[in-house]
Amino acid sequence: MSQTPPSSSDTARPHTPLLEPSSGTGEDLGDSARDEATEAPLHQNIPAGIGLMILGIFLFVANDVMGKWLVATYTVGQVLLIRSAAGLVMLSRSLWKAGLNTILFPPSPKLNLLRIFLTTCEVACFYWAVSYIPLADIVTLYMAAPIFVTALAYPLLGEKIDTPRVIAIIIGFIGVIIAMRPSSASFSLPALVALSGCLFFSLMMIITRHLRGTKGIVLVTWQSMAALLLGAVISPIGWVTPTPRDFVLLLMLGVVATLAHIAVNKALKLAPAAIIMPYQYTQIIWAVIFGIIIFGDWPDQMMIMGSALIIAAGLLIFWREQKVGRKEKDA
């Protein structure tokens, strides 16, 4: 399953986002009462930060596993409707603290609306595609989001892309092609929908960078409301009445995603982003393990090779951003 905000000691905001496809960004659950970028840093505890980051990533993947399991029986509309309702209930305390005016009148309303549109499209693409293709394949494609963000930074943001970033982009796109298994089957509708979801996610990340002044609670509330409304509109089509057990699991999608965001944000306050952000790539490990145990999906060589290249490119981009950030801070 969101750029994730760095710790307060980092001045540069890396392109590398926390990849949690079905729930948005790691910064979505920022403190509703203050701006995280200016708050005083907490006492650092690097082992605890690493542990919380791994826990958060595990929860993100577990959330997606539940989603894949449920969309085999229930429609995407039902998943969006019930999941979003549960997430909003989890956010009710923060919503109360933020106040109605803060939620209803966000800054840059046009950009917020565009972000809502992109997020809603991404979530719908993710849940639809994951019902047809292995979870590890979806996660692999979404790990390419930092590469898309970096590639789009120049035409959309006017940011300079130097040689190391260009090399990383090329490596990453090669990894994507390999992971999609270059053949006619690569262009199956589910694979293309998944790739479209990754692109929507990347564009959403870029919009989020322009909305740094918008409180996290505002961002996540609006995107949850949009998913709720979309679910309410399309869920009657093919509605399947959930069993009591499955209804609880549908509710848990929103609860687990919220807990995962909290874990990641706490991790980023306890340890520098440069140390813990690479642990986001443990998601592919969890996805493979869950895929084998629950769905019987074994990764093939092409997926493993593609994943390795995408991870290498993502780490290269991240560490390059950190290096540039330190130079700018020292200048």
Provide a descriptive summary of the structure in words.
It contains 14 helices and no strands. The chain has 331 residues and is mainly alpha-helical. It has one domain (46-324). α6 (135-142) runs parallel beside α14 (301-330). The protein is globular, with a radius of gyration of 19 Å. It starts with 45 loop residues before the first helix and ends with a helix.
Sum this structure up briefly.
With 331 residues, this protein is mainly α. The protein is 69% helix and 0% strand.
Blueprint of the fold:
Layout: H1 46-70, H2 76-90, H3 92-98, H4 100-104, H5 109-130, H6 135-142, H7 145-157, H8 163-179, H9 189-210, H10 216-234, H11 244-270, H12 273-276, H13 282-295, H14 301-330
Helix pairs in contact: 1-11, 1-13, 2-5, 2-10, 2-11, 5-9, 5-10, 6-13, 6-14, 7-8, 7-9, 8-14
